[in-house]
């Protein structure tokens, strides 16, 4: 057997209800609460609101959808929680169903600017002026960064209009027009396939047809800069130009700055990707990107309980509770962890697919096959890197499939197991893997949506965060993209 693949010590691996979030081009189906409705876009324009003084964008902190959440400044990411629809009714809508709102219909300086269910009241109407100010119709006061603040987290309030830079904003985006970059409702992957389920050893859609999802994984979100995976325009571009059907949100857990040390930030990044996936009509894997998750089991249970409660009704979501266990016992360590997290997810989400990591950097699917986790719509993770892992690992996959397990390759590369620090690719062996996955209906997401010299980095330096990457492909990217199409 090949030596165990290094994880956090390896530089490459380190650089490693439905609500519509935007209404675009045509009316898109959304769920408000639990009822299907349609939001018209005939008079809407999508925009970000960037402070002239700060260069930062107005956002809903933590991608919250809770009424009364006060908006604030944050580095611009293009996420759904920073993207607003301006309408002919002078509303500034976010997530398609919430509006910028003067808290308590307040008309005095210092009134908090929050989000609230859109209700058409004067406290939710705004004049976006040519001088850069945004003035409340009811109050006559201006959108203001508190205390002329420019830092992340600066709260937004209403204040007497002064024309200062903390009250002037640039808006980007124009009225939607018909283009080839956003397909009409009904043609997105989720519109075509709907709710997914495990059928035998494969994945099926709502009609019972076999589905093989193909897409890409983010880099470790705690080290992702800029936020390629968190940009809605980029996601739509990959959907329309690469035929991407699924994106994986690899939420780092253990390193400094990851989930355990900064849970609010990490959760916000994941929720941005979920919300963008809903807007783009693609599937999304929520990946607890850990190597020693047994040490944070209670935190994982709380994390997945919370997200399953709030997002488990969506057909878009696939859960991945443990990315890559190390060389630990399946029956003694990994399986009990999965049983706890699966139980927590199923308490709120009875049917979305859950993909379970396996020992030795998710190469031990044969061990899982000998003692599978009880439950429905469960799949098992197999990871490969084609310069390091060959037919011997596919044989393990075949053993698992013969035993009745459904597999999902949530991470792979046409490189060595370190992520390709030598820049090398092994395409013939990668093609053997592609052929094997296709023959067995195994879905996949390729590692990783990032820039740099590693051969698994899909993008060259300078790639714009919003997509348009045809001339920026790097490393194994041409091979990955060709096999998504």
From TrEMBL:
Please state what the protein is called: Cellulase family glycosylhydrolase
Q: Provide this UniProt record's keywords sorted from A to Z.
A: Glycosidase, Hydrolase
- Coiled-coil annotated spans: none
Q: Do you know which SUPFAM superfamilies this protein is assigned to?
A: (Trans)glycosidases, Ricin B-like lectins
Q: Which portions of the chain have biased composition (kind: Low complexity)? A: 170-189
Source organism phylogeny: Bacteria, Bacillati, Actinomycetota, Actinomycetes, Pseudonocardiales
Q: Which family does it belong to?
A: Belongs to the glycosyl hydrolase 5 (cellulase A) family.
Instruction: Return the InterPro entries for the record.
Output: GH, Glyco_hydro_5, Ricin_B-like_lectins, Ricin_B_lectin
- Originating species: Saccharothrix xinjiangensis
Asked if the Swiss-Prot or TrEMBL record annotates the protein with the keyword Hydrolase, the reply is yes
Q: Residue ranges of the Ricin B lectin domain?
A: 43-172
Q: Which Gene3D superfamilies match?
A: 2.80.10.50, Glycosidases
Where is the region Disordered?
A: 169-189
Write down the superkingdom of origin: Bacteria
């Amino acid at each position: 057997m090949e030596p165990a693949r290094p994880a956090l010590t390896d530089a490459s691996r380190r650089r490693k209800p439905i609500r519509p979030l935007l209404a675009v081009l045509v009316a898109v189906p959304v769920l408000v609460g639990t009822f299907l409705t349609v939001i018209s876009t005939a008079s809407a324009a999508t925009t970000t609101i960037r402070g002239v003084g700060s260069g930062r964008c107005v956002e809903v902190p933590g991608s919250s959808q809770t009424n009364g959440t006060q908006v604030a400044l944050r580095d611009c990411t293009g996420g759904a929680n920073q993207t607003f629809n301006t309408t002919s009714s002078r509303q500034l809508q976010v997530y398609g169903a919430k509006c910028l709102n003067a808290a308590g219909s307040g008309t005095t300086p210092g009134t908090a600017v929050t989000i609230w269910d859109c209700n058409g009241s004067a406290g939710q109407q705004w004049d976006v002026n040519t001088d850069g100010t945004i003035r409340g119709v009811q109050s006559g006061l201006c959108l203001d960064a508190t205390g002329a603040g420019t830092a992340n987290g600066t709260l937004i309030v209403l204040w007497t209009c002064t024309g200062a830079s903390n009250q002037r904003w640039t808006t980007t985006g124009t009225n939607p027009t018909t283009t080839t970059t956003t397909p009409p409702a009904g043609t997105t992957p989720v519109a075509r396939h709907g709710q997914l389920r495990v059928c035998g050893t494969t994945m099926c859609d709502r009609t019972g047809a076999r589905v093989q999802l193909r897409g890409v994984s983010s880099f470790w979100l705690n080290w992702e800069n800029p936020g390629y995976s968190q940009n809605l325009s980029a996601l739509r571009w990959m959907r329309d130009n690469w035929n991407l059907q699924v994106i994986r949100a690899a939420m780092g857990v253990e390193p400094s700055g990851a989930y355990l040390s900064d849970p609010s930030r990490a959760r916000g990044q994941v929720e941005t990707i979920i919300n963008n996936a809903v807007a783009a009509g693609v599937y999304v894997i929520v990946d607890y990107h850990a190597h020693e998750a047994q040490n944070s089991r209670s935190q994982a249970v709380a994390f997945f309980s919370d997200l399953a409660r709030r997002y488990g009704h969506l057909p878009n979501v696939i859960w991945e509770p443990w990315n890559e266990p190390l060389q630990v016992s399946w029956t003694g360590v990994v399986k009990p962890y999965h049983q706890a997290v699966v139980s927590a997810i199923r308490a709120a989400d009875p049917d979305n697919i859950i993909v379970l990591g396996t020992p030795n950097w998710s190469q031990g699917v044969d061990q899982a096959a000998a003692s599978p986790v009880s439950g429905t719509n469960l799949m098992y993770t197999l990871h490969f890197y084609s310069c390091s892992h060959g037919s011997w690992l596919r044989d393990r996959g075949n053993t698992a499939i013969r035993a009745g397990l459904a597999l999902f390759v949530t991470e792979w590369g046409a490189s060595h197991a370190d992520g390709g620090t030598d820049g090398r690719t092994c395409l013939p062996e990668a093609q053997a893997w592609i052929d094997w996955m296709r023959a067995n209906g195994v879905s996949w997401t390729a590692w990783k949506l990032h820039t740099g010299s590693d051969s698994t980095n899909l993008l060259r330096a300078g790639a714009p965060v919003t997509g348009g990457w045809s001339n920026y492909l790097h490393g194994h990217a041409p091979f990955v993209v060709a096999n998504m199409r």
